[in-house]
Structure formats: structure tokens, C-alpha cells
Write a structure and sequence with these properties.
Blueprint: H1 3-14, H2 24-33, H3 36-39, E1 61-67, H4 71-82, E2 87-90, H5 171-181, E3 182-184, E4 204-206, H6 216-225, E5 242-245, E6 250-251, E7 254-255, H7 266-271, E8 273-275, E9 279-285, E10 291-298, E11 301-313, H8 316-326, E12 329-330, H9 332-337, E13 344-345, E14 356-364, H10 373-390, E15 403-407, E16 412-413, E17 418-419, E18 431-438, H11 442-445, H12 447-454, H13 458-468, E19 472-480, E20 488-490, E21 501-503, H14 510-528, H15 530-534, E22 538-539, H16 555-562, E23 564-566, E24 592-594, H17 609-626
Helix pairs in contact: 4-17, 5-17, 14-16
The protein binds flavin-adenine dinucleotide (FAD) and 2-acetamido-2-deoxy-beta-D-glucopyranose (NAG) (6 copies).
Length: about 625
């Protein structure tokens, strides 16, 4: 056995789902440990496919050090390496394991060994039915960062989301960077008018997901069309509005993360140095406020590594904020509390904005024959084999998640039960509907999937599991696209290996609850359409202690505050204008830049990965322009 397969085994022993008896994940794990995936041609185990991790030693000097191999960090580091720079990319996690490649397995990655799985501080206004009233923050901890564990939805948001009232930050300025990395494989399936909005020759393959064989794909689209939602073949083109089968970060039945795109390019692999399983613990800033390098922890060793040109923080909206504060960049009084010398007094960690949703369960498919656990397991094994052999079938889909809808709920007429879209503001969505399918009986086969995935208290869990034994569910959620509430990140300890304090502070502003309820009302109409009625669909109105009765006024606002779920898109903790300037330089510090989710001043009206990769692309241009090759 090669070293690398041993690494995989160790990885899987830590995976929480491996502990779940007879869960789908266990089957996959068993197949992998049996070496069968490799025998069947799975390329995950082939030497050379992965970066083995480069040797680093105390005192090493590079041109650039990039911290975090996620959405933005992989792009920055790869571009700098391609431009001939001597670059070290530092990543706290290791290789993304094989499950990350299977689109339908995305849900099993939450709370796994690849997830930082941060706890957050309760605000008593949201996530009230979650364990400890805490919402969880999932963040990828491996090469590819969150793009290795996310749901792969490819939406860019709205053009207006990128006008930051800052020199050089309008849609026109950033659009070329969205295009630069896009390799749209399926342009021929889009209308001709879409062509100017896409590129077919970038680094990151974008394609449709495989077919899940689920008849609800079409029914979701048809039911929204019957409420006068337009079908929108391309939410990344002229208009965002309507219901769509969207493209994803996927190709040939596999996930496309920034690890298996940017970091897998042959030319990048030759040139880029990567330190895996190495956690950055701070930026070395000298007495003249110049960033000189970073300190890292690798195993039980502490190393100091230096950058001739610049240090780039791409550790994500949580990691970057924490590293800045540990290094003396942040709110003065807060840093003093922890005895950290202040280098630059900036509002790091403030004004965090994030997408948030109320989780709604629509009961469907009662009439399905009751399958035994064994039969369900059997069909899953067949699906896995199909995926291994042909990279197709349900495992290559992400369930119903490739259907999405964008709508301005103020442009929906609740009396007429129709979207009217009768004024220009209707082009700016306030809500995004996202969907997932929960198979009947999955709760008894893989209880942890529901348990950890939702992390709800006993009362709710009990109702979900009980219903799940009788019917399948479609999870429909109306995401608040422009939340008014703001959260924050602060240090909880001066120990860099301890997680920071995170307050998402969801639903602090009542208007966010109002927006959720407007979305829920549209979903009620959707479930009321003849199409849904024909299949005997109904909303699961759970009894919630502390809320009005299920048919009473005030039930939905209260429900939304209880069944709140983070969409994991937090941005803004080192925002453009406040913390970094228009060239992403940290104010008051030389040779230190930030490129990741934390620089977006507020969350765009769509899924965030596409925008954050573009930020990484743009930062690489800034760096190359500012330091010509000598
Ligand atoms: C469960 C989930 C589902 C999502 N679904 C979608 C979706 O369908 N579509 C979409 O567009 N977006 C989705 N997102 C959001 C999207 O993936 C993120 O917004 C995006 O990846 C953020 O990019 P980033 O570069 O800021 O951070 P990340 O991609 O999270 O990368 C940060 C990297 O830095 C590393 N790091 C952190 N601290 C340190 C340290 N101290 N030292 C060394 N390394 C460190 C981390 O391990 C990680 O690899 C989802 C996110 C999650 C968590
Ligand atoms: C939430 O309620 C708990 C218990 O009542 C209290 O200790 C805590 O301070 C409250 N938090 C906020 C943010 O109000
Ligand atoms: C844009 O920025 C300028 C200068 O910082 C400021 O005066 C103005 O109020 C801002 N406009 C908006 C709409 O935020
Ligand atoms: C498409 O991608 C290629 C490769 O990155 C790039 O050279 C080209 O400029 C891109 N096209 C557009 C329109 O951005
Ligand atoms: C550091 O780790 C190595 C290998 O895990 C171990 O042999 C060594 O004793 C450790 N050193 C200290 C000081 O803990
Ligand atoms: C229809 O749904 C109800 C619950 O809403 C359920 O009790 C009933 O068995 C279902 N009937 C059929 C035919 O599926
Ligand atoms: C909805 O449509 C009805 C009938 O055309 C109209 O009277 C009403 O004002 C509309 N409601 C809103 C909020 O636009």
C-alpha cells in the first residue's frame, strides 16, 4: 500500500459519519478501504494526483506567502506561480478526500473532519430550535477550502451587488475576472443571448449536474411557472429573475473545487509550493508596520516563514479576521483586552453579513411503497457503482439543489397569487428559493445525517424523524438575499489554535423575518398549486413550544426564528473601504493584503463562491502589477 492510501484511511477514521452504522457513507468508506474504488479506476489514489505537501523549514523565504487554499487563495496562489513567482500556499487542512468528489455526497461533509464546524454565539432571535440555540458555521478545512465541501451552485449574484462606491469597484471592473476563470462546458444548451456573459476556456469547469431521476425537478419548475415565475435559462446573464435549472461547479459527474482545478494544473503543480496541515498563527509585522512573513504551526512545531514581497490572507471571513486581530490589526480596545500590541486600529470583524433561511419541510411521496432499510441501502450501492463506473446517475447530481429561483417578493401579488414584475426594482431579487430532497426513511438508516446536518433540538428532531418514516420531504427554503442584520467576529482567546467568537446575529433586524415570511407565503402558494396537490403535498407545520399554534397568526415569524439555518455565505469582516483599500491592501500595514470573502462589504444576491474566486483572480493582477518581475 502506498503512503497516500494510508493517509486516506487515517482521514476516514476521523470522519464522524464513518461511525454511523450502515449509513450510505459507511458503504462508500467500506468500498474505498477495500481498495475497490482504486481498482475500478478511481484516480484519487494515483500517486501524483495530489500534492504531497512541500517541505518547509524555519526561516524559509518566498516571494509571496498566501494563507488559505480556499476559493480565493487557490486562485491567487496559482496565478502568482504561473507568473513565475516563488509562492508558498499555506493550508490548515489536508487533501479533500474522495467523498468530496461525489456531488450527491455534499451533505455528508458538513460536520465531518473537513469542516471547521464553528459554534456561534446565540442571539436569542434565531436558530431557537437548534442545539444550544446556536447556528453552526461550516467552513472547508482542506485544499479547495469551502469549495471542497459546498453545494456547488454557480450563481454570480446581481450586477448591482458589485458597485461598491469605491474607485475601481463597479460591475464593469470585476466582470472580466468572473469570465477569466470560467470554462463553461455547456454553452450550447444556453440561449444565444447568453454567449457574451460566458467564457468557455477558463480554468474552472462549469457544467450541469447529472440527472437525479427525481420527478420533482420538473414539478418545482412547473409549479413556480404556474405562479407566473418566468423560466430563466441563465441566471448569470441579462436577468437573474425566475426559476432555473442552474449550472454548477461540476463536470463529468464530479465536483470542481478550486483544488482540483487551479491547484491541479500541471504548470501550477510544478511551480507552486504548498504546505498542507499547516496552520498560520499570525502575521509577522515589524516595527515599521511592514508585513515580513507569518508564523505557522505544523504538528507541534512552530515555524517562521518570510515573504520578500507580500503576505496575502485568504483564510476566509472567519480565519482572516482572526489572523488579523491576532497580529495586531483590529479594534484597538478589543486587542488591548487580549494584550495584543496594536499595529493598526481598524474595524476588523465588524459588519458581517450572511444569507440565512427558514427551513421548510414539504411532505411528499406518501404513496411510495415502503422500502426496507436494506432495499434503500441496496439501491444506494447500485448508484455508487454507477457513479464509479460511468460518473453518472443520481450520485452525480446534487439532488434538487440545481433548481433555484430568484424573486423580488415585493413584486409578487399575494391576492392574485402571481408574480407581477411590473417595475424596474423587480429585477433586483430579495429572495432565492433553494431545494433539497429528503428520501423517505433516510432518518432510520443515517440518523446522524439529519442529526448533525440540521443540529436541531430533540423536539424538532423527533417530529422530523417521525414524519420521515412516513413520507419523503422536499426541503424548500427562502433565502434572505439582502439581510439587514449584521453580525461580528472577535477573538475569544489569544491562542491562535482556539476558534474565535462568532456572532452571526441572524434576524436581529425584524425586516429579515418579514422577508422570510413573504417567501414562505409564496411557498405556501406553490404547495397549493394543482400540481403539488395532485401529489398530495403539504407543508409540515411542526409544533414548536413557545410559538403560536400552527394555524394561528404569528406562527410563521416564530417558526422562522426557530428553524433558522445559515447559508454559510458570510462576508464583510475585512471589508473594502473599511479595512482594506481599493487594491486590497490592509490599511496602515505595508505588504499585507486580503483576498477572500471578508473583503466583500455585503453579501451579493446569489451564492458566493463565483464572486470570491473572481476576487482572488483580481488580487493576483494587483500583485503582479505592483511588483514587476525584477
Ligand atoms: C456547506 C456550504 C455550502 C455552500 N454552498 C455554496 C454553493 O452551493 N455555491 C456557492 O457559490 N457557495 C457556496 N458556499 C459558500 C462558498 O463556498 C464560500 O463563500 C467560499 O468558498 C468562501 O471562499 P473563501 O476563499 O473566502 O474561504 P474558503 O473557501 O472557506 O477558504 C479558506 C481556506 O483557508 C483555510 N484556513 C483558514 N484559517 C487558516 C489558518 N489560520 N491557516 C491556514 N489555513 C487557514 C481554510 O482551511 C480554507 O481552506 C457554501 C459554503 C458552505 C460552507
Ligand atoms: C440570551 O439569553 C440568555 C439566557 O436568558 C442570556 O444569558 C444571554 O445573555 C442572551 N443573549 C443575548 C445576546 O441577548
Ligand atoms: C460614496 O462615497 C462617498 C465618498 O466616500 C460618500 O461621500 C458618499 O456618501 C457615498 N455614497 C453612498 C451612496 O454610499
Ligand atoms: C477566457 O479564458 C481565457 C483563459 O483564462 C482567457 O485568456 C480569456 O481572456 C477569457 N475570455 C474572456 C472573455 O474573459
Ligand atoms: C513532537 O511530535 C513528534 C512526533 O509527533 C514527537 O516525537 C515529539 O516528541 C514531539 N515533541 C514535543 C516537544 O512534544
Ligand atoms: C395524503 O396526505 C395525508 C397527510 O397530509 C396522508 O395522511 C394520506 O395518507 C395521503 N394520501 C395519499 C393517497 O397519499
Ligand atoms: C394585486 O392585484 C389586485 C388586482 O389587480 C390589485 O387590486 C392589488 O392592488 C394588487 N396588490 C398589490 C400589492 O399590488
Amino acid at each position: 500500500m502506498t503512503t497516500i492510501s494510508l493517509e486516506y484511511e487515517a482521514e476516514f477514521r476521523h470522519c464522524e459519519y464513518a461511525k454511523v452504522n450502515s449509513s450510505v457513507a459507511t458503504v462508500v468508506v467500506a468500498l474505498i478501504l477495500g481498495g475497490q474504488l482504486r481498482d475500478l479506476g478511481f484516480d484519487g489514489g494515483r500517486p501524483g494526483f495530489l500534492h504531497f505537501g512541500d517541505k518547509i523549514s524555519d526561516g524559509d523565504v518566498y516571494d509571496y506567502i498566501v494563507v488559505g487554499a480556499g476559493a480565493a487563495g487557490s486562485a491567487v496562489a496559482a496565478r502568482l506561480a504561473l507568473a513565475g513567482r516563488h509562492v508558498l500556499l499555506i493550508e490548515a487542512g489536508g487533501d479533500p478526500h474522495l467523498l468530496t468528489k461525489i456531488p450527491s455526497a455534499a451533505i455528508t461533509l458538513t460536520a465531518s473532519s473537513l469542516d471547521w464546524y464553528y459554534d456561534t454565539i446565540p442571539n436569542n432571535k434565531s436558530c431557537l430550535s437548534s442545539v444550544g440555540k446556536r447556528c453552526h458555521f461550516s467552513r472547508g478545512r482542506c485544499l479547495g477550502g469551502s469549495t471542497s465541501i459546498n453545494y456547488m451552485m454557480y450563481t454570480r449574484g446581481n450586477r448591482q451587488d458589485y458597485d461598491f462606491n469605491l474607485t475601481g469597484w463597479t460591475w464593469k471592473d470585476i466582470e472580466p475576472y468572473f469570465l477569466r476563470y470560467e470554462r463553461l462546458v455547456s454553452l450550447k444548451h444556453l440561449p444565444k443571448s447568453s454567449a457574451p456573459y460566458h467564457n468557455t476556456s477558463g480554468v474552472v469547469s462549469i457544467d450541469y449536474f447529472g440527472d437525479s431521476n427525481n420527478p420533482w425537478h420538473k414539478r418545482l419548475i412547473d409549479s413556480l411557472e404556474s405562479l407566473n415565475f418566468p423560466y430563466n435559462p441563465d441566471v448569470n446573464a441579462q436577468s437573474q429573475i425566475g426559476v432555473s435549472r442552474i449550472l454548477g461547479f461540476t463536470h463529468r459527474g464530479e465536483r470542481m473545487s478550486t483544488a482540483n482545478t487551479y491547484l491541479e494544473m500541471k504548470s501550477v503543480k510544478r511551480k507552486l509550493r504548498i504546505a498542507k496541515n499547516t496552520q498560520c498563527t499570525g502575521v509577522i509585522i515589524d516595527e515599521n508596520n511592514v508585513a515580513r512573513g507569518v508564523t505557522v504551526q505544523r504538528g507541534n512545531k512552530t515555524l517562521r516563514l518570510y515573504a520578500k514581497h507580500e503576505v496575502v490572507l485568504s483564510a476566509g471571513s472567519i480565519g482572516t479576521a482572526q489572523l488579523l486581530m491576532l497580529s495586531g490589526v483590529g479594534p484597538k480596545d478589543h486587542l488591548k483586552e487580549f494584550g495584543i500590541p496594536v499595529k493598526s486600529d481598524l474595524s476588523v470583524g465588524d459588519d458581517m453579513s450572511d444569507h440565512v433561511l427558514p427551513l421548510l419541510f414539504i411532505k411528499v411521496d406518501y404513496d411510495q411503497r415502503p422500502f426496507s432499510d436494506f432495499a434503500v441501502l441496496g439501491s444506494k450501492i447500485l448508484e455508487i457503482l454507477q457513479w464509479i463506473m460511468t460518473r453518472s446517475g443520481p450520485m452525480s447530481s446534487n439532488g434538487l439543489t440545481d433548481i433555484t429561483a430568484f424573486v423580488n417578493t415585493n413584486c409578487y401579488n399575494y391576492t392574485l397569487r402571481r408574480l407581477v414584475n411590473d417595475r424596474p426594482e423587480c429585477e433586483l431579487p430579495t429572495a432565492q428559493f433553494i431545494y433539497a430532497y429528503l428520501n423517505k426513511g433516510v432518518g432510520s438508516i443515517a440518523p446522524n445525517l439529519i442529526n448533525l446536518g440540521l443540529s436541531k433540538d430533540k423536539d424538532i428532531l423527533q417530529q422530523v424523524l417521525s414524519e420521515n418514516s412516513k413520507s419523503a420531504s422536499i426541503l424548500i427554503s427562502s433565502v434572505v438575499l439582502q439581510p439587514k442584520s449584521r453580525g461580528w467576529v472577535r477573538l475569544a482567546s489569544s491562542d491562535p489554535l482556539k476558534p474565535p467568537a462568532i456572532s452571526p446575529n441572524y434576524l436581529d433586524d425584524e425586516r429579515d423575518v418579514d422577508e422570510m415570511v413573504r417567501g414562505i407565503k409564496i411557498i405556501e402558494h406553490m404547495v397549493d398549486t394543482p400540481l403539488f396537490k395532485k401529489y398530495n403535498a403539504s407543508i409540515h407545520r411542526m409544533k414548536i413550544s413557545g410559538c403560536p399554534g400552527v394555524d394561528e397568526d404569528g406562527y410563521w415569524p416564530c417558526y422562522a426564528r426557530h428553524l433558522t439555518l445559515s447559508v454559510q455565505h458570510a462576508v464583510g469582516t475585512a471589508a473594502l473601504g473599511r479595512v482594506v483599500d481599493e487594491r486590497l491592501r490592509v490599511k496602515g500595514i505595508k505588504n499585507l493584503r486580503v483576498g477572500d470573502a471578508s473583503v466583500l462589504p455585503y453579501v451579493p444576491r446569489g451564492n458566493t463562491a463565483a464572486a470570491i474566486i473572481a476576487i482572488g483572480e483580481r488580487l493576483s493582477d494587483f500583485l503582479i502589477q505592483d511588483h514587476g518581475l525584477e
